[in-house]
Amino acid sequence: MSLESGENLSKIWDEFISSCEFPVNLESHRRVVICTPSLETLRLFNSCCLPSNFELTLESMELIGYSRGSVESKYDANKSEKTSVDLQLYAVAVPLKKSSLQYLDVFLNNTGAGSKDSGYGSLEFCFLLDWEMQDQRNWLRNLQDSLAHLKSHGYKVEGDNLSIWCVNSSYIFKLQRNISSWRNYHIDLQQQVLRSFALENGCSLYNVNCESETNTDTYKTNFMAQVTREFDRVEPELAYFPNIAIPTGTDTQNLIATVDSQFSWETIKNDQEKYEMSLPAAKVKPESQNRRSDALDTDLNELVSQGNYENLEQNAMSILDKYKIDVQQELEKLYTETKRTRH
Question: In this predicted structure, what is the pLDDT of residue 333?
Fold first, then answer.
């Protein structure tokens, strides 16, 4: 492609984006990028934390999700009347990739001005973590790398436009009950590491108990308070782990030390690999397998009961492809079960 044709293509693209733009009231306009480690994590966050009139989904972890709408907010600066907040929500996979950031640059019209670009309203980054995925060893490094990537692309990551949301927080009780290597020490350590990271970077930290319907309104309130910067509307919770809510400016190193006085954030940063290896590794199936195992078993058992052994492999492949798991491993199990039912 010649330079001239490339410039023409860029011009056409810019004109298309401009034609899709809508009048923006900058005082009420909020852009939010939600960075998720999985499709299921995003689904849970959507149902627990986002306003009820929003549905933010991803068809693939390689794509970018989008949702837009207006929300009646109680978080106006004067607190005298309700205002309407216009939200544009984007979903992107983490760890952040160069291609994902390039796509975001186009949709967010990032030209290096970053999150405080006065022409497009404020910009918030929400990073999702998922206790049930059991990838806690990677959390700190992924957060550090993500911030570095954002800064390298010219985004102004300024603390108050950052938040961390740990979904499935109640899963820690299952870890303690079912996996002997997970002890109270590990839970406390991870809590102190996340709080220290949030404190150092000036961002907010929230835990989300997806099994508790009674807390949903609180989570939705916290989300709106976060994106509108009305942090005084969040009721801080530092004691009960599943519902931790620590808006920016609330935590201190002394408060973090009350969990375990021997904790040293500097030691963690100086020997991060040692910290990562101190956390138990995942001992269960990855999330994409674990959460769908019951439905998968049902489908495969039904296939075996039909007795169509000539097309067994072809039919099994279509089922396994739907669940995106280890095909060879599951086929071996299926043939074993087939031989058993024949005898």
Answer: 61
Closest CA to 143 of 132, 127, 166: 127
Contact between 246 and 238 under an 8 Å Cβ cutoff? The reply is: yes
CATH superfamily, domain at 24-278: P-loop containing nucleotide triphosphate hydrolases (3.40.50.300)
Q: How far is CA 111 from CA 1, 31, 155, 326, in A?
A: 23, 16, 9, 42
CB atoms within 10 A of CB 307: 11
- CA angle, 123 as apex, 122 and 128 as ends, to 5°? 145
For residue 280, give the DSSP letter.
P
Q: Rounded to 5, what percent of the chain is helix, strand, coil?
A: 50, 15, 35
Q: What is the pLDDT of residues 245-265, one digit of tens each?
A: 999 999 999 999 999 999 999
How distant, in Å, are the alpha carbons of 97, 124, 128, 133, 168 from that of 61?
Answer: 11, 20, 14, 16, 20
Predicted TM-score (pTM) above 0.85: no
